[in-house]
Amino acid sequence: MRWFNVVVARNLEMNRRLLRARDAMDRDFAGPLNVGDLAIVACVSEANFIRSFKAVFGETPHRYLQRRRIERAVYFLRTTNTSITDICMAVGFSSLGSFSRTFTAILGESPTA
């Protein structure tokens, strides 16, 4: 039974580390995704970070960041008169094409809709 407690403790610690990395992504969603820096925050290798993040949160760090950016873009689209291009850049996308494709893939409709 002791080994079980050790495993549970390790899992809890890993979850805390991953939450710190996810919080960093939430704070700096408009910046570039640097998996290496996020892995350092989580105190694991890059490969282990990506694998563990997906296991815990159900999506890769890249997809999580895309979704956060789109959520923020939806907020801006609904509450401001800012152009789609300006919103695209403000939430961290570098091209309107990738923003529109990602927006449509995640929400099922275009940013203009």
Key terms:
single chain; 113 residues; mainly alpha; elongated
Could you explain the architecture of this structure?
The protein is mainly α and 113 residues long. Helices cover 74% and strands 0% of the residues. It contains six helices and no strands. Helix 2 crosses helix 3. The protein is elongated and about 45 Å long.
Please report the distance between the alpha carbons of the first and last residues: 56 Å
Class by helix and strand content? mainly alpha
SSE sequence, one letter per element: HHHHHH
Strand content: under 5%
**Total number of β-strand segments?**
0
- Mean pLDDT across residues: 87
| Rg (CA only) | 17 Å
Largest sheet: none
- List the uncertain runs: 3-9
3D shape: elongated
Helix content percent band:
over 70%
Summarize the SSE layout with pairings.
Elements: H1 2-27, H2 35-42, H3 46-57, H4 61-79, H5 84-90, H6 96-107
Helix pairs in contact: 1-2, 2-3
In short:
The protein is mainly alpha-helical. The chain has 6 helices and no strands. The longest helix is centred in the first third of the chain and has 26 residues, at 2-27.
